[in-house]
Design a protein that fits this description.
The structure holds three protein chains of three kinds. Chain A contains nine helices and twelve strands. By secondary structure, chain A is an alpha/beta fold. In chain A, a hairpin with a 2-residue loop joins strand 1 and strand 2. By secondary structure, chain B is of the alpha/beta class. Chain B has one domain. The longest helix of chain B is centred in the first third of the chain and has 20 residues. Chain B starts with a helix and ends with a helix. Chain C is α/β, with parallel strands linked by helices. Chain C has one domain. In chain C, the strands form three sheets. In chain C, strands 5, 6, 8, 10, 11, 13, 15, 16, 18, 20 and 22 form an eleven-stranded mixed β-sheet that branches. A ten-stranded mixed β-sheet of chain C has the order 4-3-7-9-12-14-17-19-21-23, with helices on one face. In chain C, helix 3 packs antiparallel against helix 8, helix 6 packs across helix 7 and helix 10 runs antiparallel to helix 11. The longest helix of chain C is centred in the last third of the chain and has 17 residues. The chains are: A alpha/beta, B alpha/beta, C alpha/beta. At the B-C interface, strand 17 and strand 18 of B face strand 22 and strand 23 of C.
Amino acid sequence: MIRENSELLIEITDLHASVEDQPILNGVNLKIKAGEIHAIMGRNGSGKSTLSKVIAGHPAYKVTSGSISFQGINLLELEPEDRARQGIFLGFQYPIEIPGVSNLEFLRVATNSRRKQLSHEELDTFEFEDVVREKLKIVQMDEAFLNRSVNEGFSGGEKKRNEILQMALLEPMVSILDETDSGLDIDALQIVAAGVNKLAKAETATLLITHYQRLLNEITPDFVHVMAAGKILKTGNKDLALELETSGYEWVDQEIKNEAGNS
Amino acid sequence: MKASYKQWLTSLPQPSGLLEAIQRKSRKALLDMEIKLIEDDSWRLTNRKQLENLLKLPLDNSKAKQEINTNKGLARLPSKGFRLDLNGKSNCFDQDKLPTGFSVLNSKEIKTFIENQSKNNINPEHWSIAINNASSNHIIGLRIKGNDIPALELVMQAKEKEFIPTRILIIIEDKSDLELLEVLVGANKSGQSHMIDIYLGKESKLQHGLICSGRSESNFLANVIVNQEAFSTYNFTSVQYGYELGRLETHINQKDGNAKTNLNGLQVSTGNEQLATYSKIHFNGPEGHFDQLQKSTASKKSHCIFHGSINVPKIAQQTNASQLSKNLLLSKRAKIDTKPELKIIADDVKCTHGATISQLQEDEIFYLRSRGISAKQATSLLIEGYCKEILESLPVEASRWGILTQILTSIQE
Amino acid sequence: MANQTSVAEIVSEPYKYGFVTDIETEKIAKGLSEEVIHLISAKKQEPKFLLDFRLKSYRQWLKMKEPNWAELKYPPIDYQDIIYYAAPKQNEKKSSLSEVDPKLLETFDKLGIPISEQKRLSNVAVDAVFDSVSIATTYKEKLAEHGVAFCSISEAIVEYPELIEKYLGSVVPFSDNFFAALNSAVFSDGSFVYIPKGVDCPMELSSYFRINSGDIGQFERTLIIAEEGSSVSYLEGCTAPMFDTNTLHAAVVELIALNDSSIKYSTVQNWYSGNEKGIGGIYNFVTKRGHCRGKRSKISWSQVETGSAITWKYPSCILQGDQSIGEFYSVALTNNKQKADTGTKMIHIGENTRSTIVSKGISAGQSSNSYRGLVQIGPKASGAKNYSQCDSMLIGDQAEANTYPYIRSQQPESSIEHEASTCRISEDQLFYLQSRGIGFEEAVSMMVSGFCRDVFNQLPMEFAAEADKLLALKLEGSVG
């Protein structure tokens, strides 16, 4: 929801980043305020996922220039875990499997590290189990998942629900959901979307990264950005997403060509 | 053992020709290190008595030209390739008969290659290599260039009560590929020492099969030495059966990593036979691939040995290696020893190995019997299935040698 | 997982057991000879059969060569430069703890092994060994009510000579190997456990070994006998001060399990491992072997090996009784310049015997960590089964992990399965944990404990958490 005077949460200014010396982001500008839902669309290789990893602080991505501030803090100076503790959450496109590490233990340690940052009391094992049981309902997950290793042997849908469960537990300020809809059937998609909607609050913001309209049917964005060649090319409201769905991305290529011709 | 072994070494014909220097060197080394052999782990399980018998056999020093495409009552000639008989008694043959894609290496090229052997992670004093180095009087070197060239079949036929060393060097040029089938054929109370050096150029490919088909009281020691340049592929399948004492050693060196190596092996031992496979792979660069499946079955009072070693030094990051040793123990008096071994220093690698020893599954036999198949037939069917997985990876031309039938007969006798 | 303390807190601590207790010690002169053995035996007022055993062992040792087949390289040990007997000066072992030198009690308190009446653990009986002698054994009386004998081996030699004569050296003969022969000649003290027929030992038994003097060798000897239908769980812990020199530790442990009995033997080994440059640390050459003599008997080894500069150790099971069971669960962690060559031997002799091996090796720094195991199925062991799993984790690109499984079968009606893998902690796994707010060191530690979970589950409750903390501590500064 767009509101006047709401707090500026994230401000990305002229962000350039590269992987293995290959530039991927070429000057991204983006402002996200509290209460807003943003969607970034674009084709494979446009830099969408890179942007999400850079915000979360993945070590393989090097920021070459530009800045990201979060509630006035310079995010780029923080370690990934400190960003998470501050309230940045990245829902991964491919959540990784970590054999041997119990899901429950992982969720508890993560939750407590966020609570500590917020000066909340840390939860002991028993208290935590009550909390997590409550949150499981949001994503309609079975308790049995808690006793397995982190994401190990989970189906695609189960992994994504586990991501939303973490989001529910960590209560982030800004949630970035990277292709959360990929690999989900329609039922799972609705569960995940309902979870995201339920967790959205007036003080927090959501950034959806997606290919397709179908997630945006479930979660209505306030802003839609189109990314190409490492930049945000165009920004509009939810109608822009519908337009992309019908007319495709060809015009994007044209714009890039035009831009190249102009400069 | 010491006395007879020494006697054997001194009974060898005087060193001469192209290999004179290496012969002298290796004979001296062998005399010096005999004691060490006994302590070396890789010889601990070897049937010493049989090894002694092997090293009593005299070496015939007569000369005879090597022949191309003559059939001496063995399997018929290959249809899409040609056969070269390697008798170890000369290094001349009708070079005009060589098809396109094959040429003969000159003595200077061969010499350079042999002198460089020790630089490629091969120890010329390694016992079994040294035996061949000490006794081989002749070597043939072939250069292979091109694709879709005829397949090469090398036949090394033993002679009764005689020791025959054979040696060949094959260089496969960059981007070339070859299908090679080697067949060792044993004879009554015979001994063979075979050594093949293979050099695979960049982006080259070799499909290599080695069949070791023994007769009563025949023995062999074989060494396959392979140096692979980056982006080359080496597929090797070995099959051993019928030898009283058989020992195959494979030494692979991925010179700059980035190459693919697949090893498949089958040993089928029966009677008092002892068959052994020792394989070593060294990754001298990153991103190497290695896949090995070694199968053995041991029946009667026989003994199968497998020792596979994978060496991944620090330079070999992102190596992906897997090794599996599967064994069937078919009799109460048979023995199986297996040792799949990993040595890893690089941290970003994926290596797995495994080993199983078991007998044929009772419920599988029962299932077949419940369909009216006799116990004997059921066993034979299951062993056939077990061996086929390896036999199918031999070069296509291998089928002429009728190995499966021979293997199954040998087990049932 | 029991570890709730933040790793960051733990990793900031150096080896915390590195202190030296200032206590007057009685030492004999350096060197080894028949006279020295006479002297040790006389000091311990031993019966003649034991002196003879020692002398026989010594003469055998003189004829033996130090083994060199392991992946361990260390400078030669000068066996004449070692003191073979040292004891804190107190007249005799005290009958009551109140008479023990308070400095010694304080030492064990500091090590987290309280033995004084007020503080001791309620369900664990402890035998505390300081240098060459046992200084106290707790709960002796309570155990005696159940007929359980738990005391130092020196006391057992006096009180139960017939058991000692019958069983000492019956599992590990004095001629077994170089270090076992040396131990048999000069062993100083250690623990003795005897569980009578049909008794389930009412509490955990534990021995705690402390090397205090820098120039002595520690040669303890442990003997555990479980009579028919009995069971016992035993744990040993070890620490030593930090010295720049290397200290030799060559222990022998023998376990005997009769029909339907079970012995569970756990070790948390944290000898001083030397500094990051590889200076100092304990040379740990240990022979541990269990003999499942009776039908349906069971011996289970679990070990967490984190200390020592050199570890040479292969706790083994001889599965003689039909349907007997052998188990080996091991975590070996090496860091800096540590070298460990450890594993097990499972010798299947009886019918339907079973064994399980789970080994987890973690190598960090410039260390080398080797698994060496033998599984042997003899011709009479029909129906025998073995399952082995050996996993290695490498941290950093200077560490070395080796696996040497020897497998031999002479019995078709048996099955052996061996699996092994090597992995590393991937950057993506670390990032995933970090992106959920979990700190770097803690993320590593979580993954290492996850890797070791199968083994930790086998440790007695009280020590699983301890082991977990120990690993975190040892990994300090090895990642990143």
